[in-house]
Every structure is written in structure tokens, then in C-alpha cells.
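C-alpha cells please, single chain.
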Amino acid sequence: MRRKTTLPPDGLSGRSRRARVEPMAVRPLRDGRYVVETDGGTYVVDVDARTCTCPDNAIRHARCKHLRRVAIEITRGEVPPPGRRSATCAVCGDKTFVPMEATGPYLCSDHEHHPGDLVHDRETGSLLVVTRDLGTRADETRTETGDLVSDYETNADYGDHEPVFEAVYLGSLPADAGLADLGELRAYRFPASRLRRVEQGFVGVQSLGERFARV
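Here you go.
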């Protein structure tokens, strides 16, 4: 249960000020709405529909302080946006928000990778391009030799519970490669934290040949 908190007024007035300085506790519901507890009552906010069960919104159709407070806490990363829920990053343990239907392991924005991202292998120093997220743990995913990714000698310093990504070495890509070409190349499997992102969307936005000079 979250306790009621306040925020700095930031020089605002009216409902915008009350949304910050009045004690409130915001809790997300599984259906994408939010419960807002205040000293004067408890209300249900629907951000997408821009509705609240308080009289200010229900009767006067105003953008009430409860709607404003939920929007503030979403922006601040205090509560997940509609359609997402809180989870724990498998690498750093920080809070992150994932789709309601997502299954673990999970990664925060600092440690997740996407197809086309340029990454640095912490063990060898090599540059690779991510081809896909396998959505499985290192201790349940096998390499092409049949060994578990977690049992591979050079992965000893990375978490067995981490999600596994496939990536291809940068040097194996033709100069005009795009996302569609990545699946045709030999890919290797790595625990998430072994790969450090260098550039997001390296392949796919522009041709690889135009980007070689920047590496």
C-alpha cells in the first residue's frame, strides 16, 4: 500500500496546485485505472477516458486534481502508465514498467536491447548488432553447441536469470545491410548485461554503410 504524499507547488495555482500540495496516494488497478486516496475521500481515475468519480469531474466535468495528480505521477515514473505494470529489472533490480501480459525476465530501459541496436561485448570488446530478444533465461537457453548460455565459460560473471539476446558481429554485415538481412547471418547468444548498448536503432533507420564512419 502506498502512503499519501505531497509534491512541491512549483508556483502553480488552482487545481494544478492542489494536485501537488494535497496529500494523495495513487495506486494502479489491473484494468488500467487508478485509485486515488485523499484526506477527503477515495476516487477512481481513468486516464484514457479523462474521468474521475469525484464530484468536480463527474458533475462539473472539470479536469480535477485527482486526474492531474495521476498524470504527474505517471510522468515522474512513480506509477505505470495505463496498460503496463511494475516489474523488477533482471540486471540492476530497478523498477521498470512492462505490458500487463508480459512474462519475465524483465529489463529496464538502460539494459534492454532491440533488433538493430549496436552493442559492445564486455568480454571481447567486439561490436555486434542485436538480431532478436529470445525472451528466455540464460539458464534455460542453449547455444548451437548444446551448452546452456549460463554455463558458457565467458558468461560466468553474468546472471543465470538474465534474458538472452542474439547478435551478429558487426564485421559480418554487408555495408548496405538492413533489419531484414540480420536473420540471414550467423547469430550468437548472450546474457543481457554482457552487451552494452552503443547506439539504438543502428541498423534500420539508415543503411549500415552510411554509419560505418561513425563507429
